[in-house]
């Protein structure tokens, strides 16, 4: 996290009001401590994703925050939230009583008072990239940039041309971003909260000659029953927790009951062939771009991504998203992009404000959220042929089984955790007993023809370590470019066999004879 106009190792000690000169982007005041000085600074409001109290900017020690006290609390009903402004600073806070779980040895759970800066809640929840940050201050941006159609079996969201110069299309390659954007656009409660930011800015800003100033405020979303994880300061005397930085939200409800498809006419220019590329070139150790808000950026659909701590999101009722090439939403319209990530020249200045044709530095942006929702159940249809085989195994040979699926993990520098349609790649895990022995079947989703992995049949030496070893297997599959980590599997399994798949067409259809042959090969393998 580097901002050009701040000294090295600047610890943010306070965040102030927004201000704007005529014809210029919004800026925000902040206070920082460094070896050089304790001073007030200002930087572009587009950088807000990076700016939380006690974070360290321009760190030379690979340290991003002075963490402070750590806990998780449950949000109460909206009627219990009180909005107030501090007397001296006039900065706006929310205050409420909440049940909190402390991150101490005793895992203490008790009722405490929460003081939550309104700007910090908006930063962590809404300001995930430069577009969502800038757009929050403008009226009606979401309506101007996105057209929503409610179809029988899916929502279709058209990304309109007005959006293109502001929001890099590469963001739509990320399932987590697509889900959050769909949530923001379709959930009335969440959208109303986001749009209240621009409404309150317009209503309460002050204008003095050519300078506009505003103390940030907004109407919070209804987060009843949801959990917030945060760092801050706990005052034992008053039993008050003062939030510095929110690091995660869990228990979120979307209330969206069907898939969300995103369409833009430039999506259809994507390559129709899946790339064999599975790794991302690593960054040079010395390469970290600096945010420069003095020089304008050139337009780019693949901006340089600034490393920053990510806020974690966990949804209780996730929905599937896709990026599509036509408006029918049919599966054969799914975009197949080159899986290779774009790696720009990372040394130099970038700007996260609105790009311009006369820009002289590269466009910069953030990916300030990480979706850690367990949503593998959304993709079970990719295993329909495998599941048909399991039905045959049960029907013909009496094998009773249990099936679960998981998403393959993100591994730094590798891309095969995503399919060519930029949705998560999953692995199915099947457990069953046969003649007193515990067997496990593993099947990886390769429905995009990225590779052909055989079905694995395993007997594990020690099931006490299976969960930990299974986690390693999933990671190794990504690192091995969709190949089984055979040497590791042989270490943990007393017995291992592989079975080739029959031919499976695009619709997961398999000839009956082939299904029965697949099931028979596995049954024979059980009895060897």
UniProtKB/TrEMBL annotation:
<dbReference type="Pfam" id="PF18623">
    <property type="entry name" value="TnsE_C"/>
</dbReference>
<feature type="region of interest" description="Disordered">
    <location>
        <begin position="270"/>
        <end position="305"/>
    </location>
</feature>
<dbReference type="InterPro" id="IPR041419">
    <property type="entry name" value="TnsE_C"/>
</dbReference>
<feature type="domain" description="TnsE C-terminal">
    <location>
        <begin position="382"/>
        <end position="522"/>
    </location>
</feature>
<feature type="compositionally biased region" description="Low complexity">
    <location>
        <begin position="270"/>
        <end position="279"/>
    </location>
</feature>
<protein>
    <submittedName>
        <fullName>Transposase</fullName>
    </submittedName>
</protein>
